[in-house]
Design goal:
- The chain is built from 15 helices and 14 strands.
- With 402 residues, it is α/β, with parallel strands linked by helices.
- It has 2 domains: 144 residues, Nucleotidyltransferase, domain 5; 189 residues, ATPase, nucleotide binding domain (Nucleotidyltransferase, domain 5, 2-Layer Sandwich).
- It has an 8-stranded mixed sheet with strand order 5-4-3-2-1-6-8-7, sandwiched between helices.
- It is globular, with a radius of gyration of 21 Å.
- The mean pLDDT is 96.
- The structure holds adenosine monophosphate.
- Adenosine monophosphate binds next to α10 and α12.
Length: 402
Amino acid sequence: MTDGTRVLVLNAGSSSVKYQLIDMVDGSRPAAGLVERIGEADGRLVHTAADGTKRERAEVFADHPAALGAVAGELAADGLGLDSPRLAAIGHRVVHGGQRFTAPTLVTDEVVAEIRRLIPVAPLHNPANITGIEVARTLRPDLPQVAVFDTAFHTTLPEAAARYAIDRKTADEHRVRRYGFHGTSHQYVSRAAARLLGRDPAEVNVIVLHLGNGASASAVAGGVCVETSMGLTPLEGLVMGTRSGDVDPGLVFHLHRVGGLTVDEIDDLLNRRSGLLGLCGDNDMREVLRRAGEGDEEARLAFDAYVHRLRKYVGAYYAVLGRVDVVAFTAGVGENAAPVREAACAGLEALGIAVDPELNSVRSGAARLISPGYARVAVAVVPTDEELEIAQQAFALVHGRN
Ligand code: AMP
């Protein structure tokens, strides 16, 4: 137990660290920032203070310890150092928690060892997350460190949804199953969507469409996730900025045997050179919309393929849930791109899903409904806040409320 009211949220990626200090009593965010290009010659740290002023440092951050040391320095310069008694916990975003971590977890040596054992299923993310945890533990050994897993919200998937229809022994030997990602966002948004309707999340069925550069959908029944579009890796599901989403797995063999591509080349193709980028050369939806508006055929096709896949998933998740109360759009594209929301819901009137063009065109940072009053299913825009969700889960855990 601590008397602190603040949580430092750390999101350590392979070459970046994002951080936010959140006060759980007054909701303020006294500091936030980002270190980019760790290990490269042109590293950069941008720190945003409580009053919104930014400080920028362009220098080499040799490794994660150096980057996190610089973050600690920036916080200390604002009187918010890691030694502050006001700090209750550090909340770490950890991408992969496998089947073991179903809830936020207090970090111990054993927990770190287990996150390390999951590296084979999250080779790009878990190593950086572990480094973040280890450095933070060194800087402040007495403070509770809480790991919040991107996969945890999806551990409730029924076995029939989590299993691929392949040989069980092979699957189990290599931990092959559908894990899902973006869980912290899906959890936050599904609850916020229920609250927007003025209802208890336990009574509400939600389809969440998290459309950022990575994109995923989930079906949430009464607060419990029952289906999600990402799988063993974040490649499955929706068309994304640079990822293909669903493809026939036979495509991999074809490109290898007939096309002569190596496994690494196919991995690179599907994860980094596909999706909107692959279809039209731009991965930013703003550019896609601008070009499509000017009559560019490739951009139009990219947009159409993107929303076609979305509509297909909305229909599929309707069938999974049986009854849908609200469809919630979130993340960069979902929160900002009215044409995507309109096209994703077009033609779904028979399911009770419709978008009011006027409400849809309103620009706002607030959670809001965009469906007409008569519609059976609410359609909402709900800005996601993964940092707040991580902070709340970490704070609740250290105060014994989990
Ligand atoms: P995220 O991963 O949630 O930060 O989302 C990033 C993506 O959101 C970018 O790649 C853009 O494609 C998209 N985005 C951000 N702002 C807009 C906007 N005003 N209109 C359309 N797409 C946007």
